[in-house]
């Protein structure tokens, strides 16, 4: 049987060897994807893009693992650049956790800098301000001011709740905790289906809070099972359990995990949607990387035999990624390949920054080199 620890240490060594060079040649950038193998830069393209915190998080993970200054410098630069979001109401949405947990919150935990604390609290206040009290959900995207999306909530938001849990710990103001848990309770009721799969988008009437309908969102269609959404649900409910110790969230995380594990294809590589047509082979490696992080955290919440069950599933996903979807050469900046934003996008299967971020988070969880972000 494979020695898991040795295997993870080998992958970690290859990550660190590659990223030392990539981080040095990517100074000043906030990458989303690659162009001809080279990281692009979203600083001017769209500083409010929801993925702009992941490069900073990747840098902090690598700094924690190696102590090398280039990672810290890059991470600090990302955090500062994100300030422009805080002056742009239209650029702020439910994804504030993704932007400020891996940047300002990590920096604050490591260095106790009041500026980082201030940034993260401003972001948490904005996130809390998106709460709809009658529907008990956090509003997802903005619209053009016509209110057409005022009733939309999405499963991804579960991963942003840790910003509110952090703000509660930091300020002792229970409103942050109340909003986070009310949203999680609503997600449990309306997003998670009987079989453990999850809807991507649920629309409520923003005036009455009543359920209206679901949408397929970034997945194949209504009632389908967008794999990254399943992964956000899995990891998100584990995190809500870790922050609140409410057993119901742990039970939901297990149901979502069981559904995910049951649907892993023979080759261990994850499609864009578990219910996409059988003649469609489109993949999304980010779903595998995110789900493996969630499964490893879930395993750590449980006793045997469940502990080994979820840990083995995480290792199966990570092993398949490492064998078939990771590029450790210095010729291209990204590591993880075949990532997909949404099923109906024109472009599929390319490099996306959070694929790399969650792969590194997962591998460093196994080696013990990582920092807990969420
Ligand atoms: N949170 C958006 C996505 O997962 O694509």
Question: What does this entry show, briefly?
Answer:
By secondary structure, the protein is mainly alpha-helical.
Task: List its salient traits.
single chain, 374 residues, mainly alpha, Glycosyltransferase, three-stranded antiparallel beta sheet, two-stranded antiparallel ribbon, 7 strands, 5% strand, globular, binds glycine
Task: Write up what this structure looks like.
The structure is a single chain. 51% of the residues lie in helices and 5% in strands. By secondary structure, the protein is mostly helical. The chain has a single domain (4-367), classed as Glycosyltransferase. It has a three-stranded antiparallel beta sheet with strand order 5-6-7, with no helix packed on it. Strands 1-2 form a two-stranded antiparallel ribbon. Bound molecules: glycine. Residues 50, 156, 218, 228, 341 line the site of glycine.
Assign the CATH class. Answer: Mainly Alpha
Query: Could you say which structural class the secondary elements and strand pairing correspond to?
Result: mainly alpha
The second-level CATH architecture is Alpha/alpha barrel
Total strands: 7
Major sheet: arrangement of strands: 5-6-7
Estimated helix fraction: 40-55%
Hetero compounds: glycine
- The domain tally reads 1
CATH fold group: Glycosyltransferase
Tell me the overall shape: globular
Strand and helix map with partners:
Layout: H1 4-25, E1 34-35, E2 38-39, H2 54-66, H3 69-81, H4 96-111, H5 114-128, E3 131-132, E4 137-138, E5 152-154, H6 161-171, H7 174-190, E6 201-204, E7 211-215, H8 227-244, H9 247-262, H10 285-300, H11 306-324, H12 353-367
Antiparallel strand pairs: 1-2, 3-4, 5-6, 6-7
Helix pairs in contact: 1-12, 2-3, 2-4, 2-12, 3-4, 4-5, 4-6, 6-7, 8-9, 8-10, 9-10, 10-11, 10-12
Glycine is lined by residues 50, 156, 218, 228, 341.
């Amino acid at each position: 049987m494979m020695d898991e620890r040795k295997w993870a240490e080998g992958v970690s060594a290859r990550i660190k060897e590659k990223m030392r060079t990539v981080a040095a040649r990517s100074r000043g950038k906030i990458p989303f994807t690659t162009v001809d193998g080279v990281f692009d830069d979203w600083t001017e393209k769209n500083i409010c893009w929801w993925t702009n915190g992941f490069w900073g998080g990747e840098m902090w993970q690598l700094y924690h693992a190696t102590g090398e200054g280039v990672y810290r410098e890059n991470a600090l630069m990302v955090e500062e650049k994100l300030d422009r979001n805080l002056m742009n109401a239209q650029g702020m949405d439910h994804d504030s956790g993704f932007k400020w947990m891996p940047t300002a919150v990590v920096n604050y935990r490591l260095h106790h800098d009041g500026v980082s604390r201030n940034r993260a609290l401003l972001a948490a206040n904005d996130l809390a301000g998106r709460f709809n009290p009658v529907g008990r959900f956090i509003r997802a995207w903005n619209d053009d001011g016509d209110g057409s999306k005022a009733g939309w909530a999405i499963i991804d938001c579960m991963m942003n709740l840790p910003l509110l849990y952090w703000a509660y710990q930091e300020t002792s103001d229970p409103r942050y905790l109340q909003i986070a848990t009310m949203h999680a309770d609503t997600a449990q009721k309306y997003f998670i289906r009987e079989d453990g799969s999850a809807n991507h988008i649920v629309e409520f009437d923003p005036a009455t809070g009543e359920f209206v309908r679901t949408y397929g969102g970034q997945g194949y269609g209504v009632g389908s099972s967008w794999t990254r959404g399943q992964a956000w649900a899995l990891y998100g409910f584990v995190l809500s359990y870790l922050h609140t110790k409410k057993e119901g969230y742990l039970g939901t995380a297990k149901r979502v995990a069981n559904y995910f594990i049951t649907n892993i294809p023979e080759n261990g590589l994850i499609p864009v949607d578990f219910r996409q047509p059988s003649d469609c082979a489109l993949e999304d490696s980010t779903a595998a990387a995110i789900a493996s992080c969630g499964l490893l955290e879930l395993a750590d919440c449980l006793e045997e035999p469940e502990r080994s069950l979820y840990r083995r599933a995480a290792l199966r996903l990570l092993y398949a990624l490492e064998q078939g979807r990771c590029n450790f050469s210095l010729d291209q900046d990204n590591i993880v390949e075949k990532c997909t934003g949404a099923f109906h996008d024109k472009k599929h299967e390319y490099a996306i920054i959070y694929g790399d971020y969650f792969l590194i988070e997962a591998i460093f969880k196994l080696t013990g080199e990582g920092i807990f972000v969420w």
